[in-house]
Design a protein that fits this description.
By secondary structure, this protein is of the alpha+beta class. It has eight helices and four strands; from the N terminus they run ααααααβαββαβ.
Length: 228
């Protein structure tokens, strides 16, 4: 039994000859690991896009195929690197957790491509369990939700003390981030970073602010504030 387990974890791609059976086994394991990673991502993210979950399934397979094609051929590796260098990828800022899942998927595909099937499965299971545990224990999650509050006020209203009573009444932590003029100086827009307890009634809070700013525009973002 021990020799069988050792053979699984020692099954690296020492033989560079690419066979149909080896290729199908590699692709099958890569697809399976990609599906596991994608399902873990869906379980740990409150919101996600359909295209990104599909990418999580496909990415390990793509990386595994690249490794299979390269093998130990240095000339082939340089050829593939040159081919990828002419491809322009569209990149957009994303969540840090999304970036970690992309690297996770690439690592799983890399381990599968070199033939380390046992380690690929082991590392995938360990990391997926770790991410699920961190999600359950809410590791690093703040008890109070940080949001961005934008309030438009008339020019004759002093923004320094105008909403202090409202913030104190609803026990909302706040920090003034930005002040700017709008409408040719007739209005001001003040931006606060606020921390609200889960039990805070947001509608009542905004209604109290509306009575102070003359029912002008108010925007409360639902996404957490990024600390600068």
């Amino acid at each position: 039994m021990n020799s069988f387990i050792d053979s699984i974890f020692a099954a690296t791609a020492s033989d560079t000859t690419l066979t149909f059976g080896h290729a199908m086994l590699t692709l099958g394991i890569a697809i399976l690991l990609g599906a596991i990673i994608s399902m873990t991502y869906m379980r740990t993210q409150p919101a996600y896009s359909h295209s990104f979950t599909l990418t999580m399934v496909i990415l390990p397979t793509i990386v595994a195929i690249i490794i299979l094609l390269i093998g130990s051929n240095v000339a082939r590796a340089f050829s593939l690197a040159g081919a990828f260098s002419i491809i322009r990828f569209r990149s957009a800022p994303g969540d840090a957790k999304d970036i970690s899942y992309v690297l996770f998927s690439m690592a799983a595909g890399l381990a599968t491509g070199v033939g380390a099937y046992g380690y690929a499965v082991l590392f995938t299971i360990v990391l997926c369990v770790l991410m699920l545990v961190l999600k359950v224990v809410k590791f690093g999650q703040r008890k109070q939700a940080s949001k961005l509050l934008k309030i438009t006020i008339p020019e004759n209203l002093g923004y320094e003390e105008a909403f202090e009573e409202v913030f104190n009444t609803f026990n909302v932590g706040h920090e003034l981030r930005k002040v700017r003029t709008t409408e040719l100086g007739s209005l001001y827009e003040v931006v606060y970073a606020v921390e609200m307890n889960p039990e805070t009634n947001q509608k009542s809070f905004l209604d109290a602010i509306r009575t102070r700013n003359g029912n002008l525009d108010i925007t409360l973002t639902m996404n957490p504030v990024t600390q600068e």
